[in-house]
Amino acid sequence: MTELIIDWNHMTQKEWDRHLSQAEHCSFQQAWAYGTIFNRDKVNVNRFVVYDGLDPIGMGQVVTRRFFGFLKVALLLRAPLWLRPVSADIKKEVLEKIRLHFPLKSFNLFAFSPDETESHQSYKDMGFRRVITGYSTVLLDINRTEDDLWQNLYGKTRTSIRKAEKSHMDIQYGDHHHYHIDWLLKHEKKQQKDKKYQGLPTKLVKSYGRNSAVFTAFALDEGMREPLAGALFLRHGRCATYHIGWNGPEGRNRNALHLLLWKTILKLKSEGVVMIDLGGINTEDGADIARFKLGFGGTPISLIGTYM
Prior knowledge:
- This protein is an alpha+beta fold.
- The chain is 34% helix and 31% strand.
- It starts with a strand and ends with a strand.
- The mean pLDDT is 92.
């Protein structure tokens, strides 16, 4: 192994996206667009690429927030993102180099949350301390045939999709400019308030779309002014994240969101997406949502947490 070099803030968006597309899986927190929408006011974003000689082997962007005028909290979310398998020694060296970039003597607190599920002891052995337990989500591998994807659905999910198909709903696809995007964001804002959860602020979704890819889908019925259901995905590298879903009373009666997600999965597959993150699950407070997401045949995972 040659000397590891960390190059800070010298890459273009095109170069960043090219590196990101090499990763088997990545989160939207590592998309260029995510950093761009937060790089303002009291928030600063630093992007890095790790080189082993001339070969890029890892990457990530650190979002730093300032508190009380002097304290800076630097967060590396679901990263470093490794572009090839690396050893624990390399991980430790890279993380120590990153931490030096945000020195404690300058009132920086650096924390990172690896996009990993099975290495807690490894990071503990490196000398890092876990401060927050891990996030749970569902990953759906769509790099397989349509028939395999269909057979992998839960039986109740297939039944719901078949029933919805008999309703002859029209499925419309678009981006952050779609005619119904404001309708969907309005319902998402109300959902966040009513169900007391916090996602990416709705006002920032369009900003993400201007810098990367937002994919929207709506189920409509002939003669209706508003959709029965809507969904929004964030694109990043060869992956996508199911970010917003809304189903009205009539949509629920007709299983509109089941059909919408199934059709959107196939559409994203046709556009080169290989992995979909179906979003966080909570089997205690959100059992119905968890069952809905698991019904599409994904794998539930729990990340190992946040470390300092």
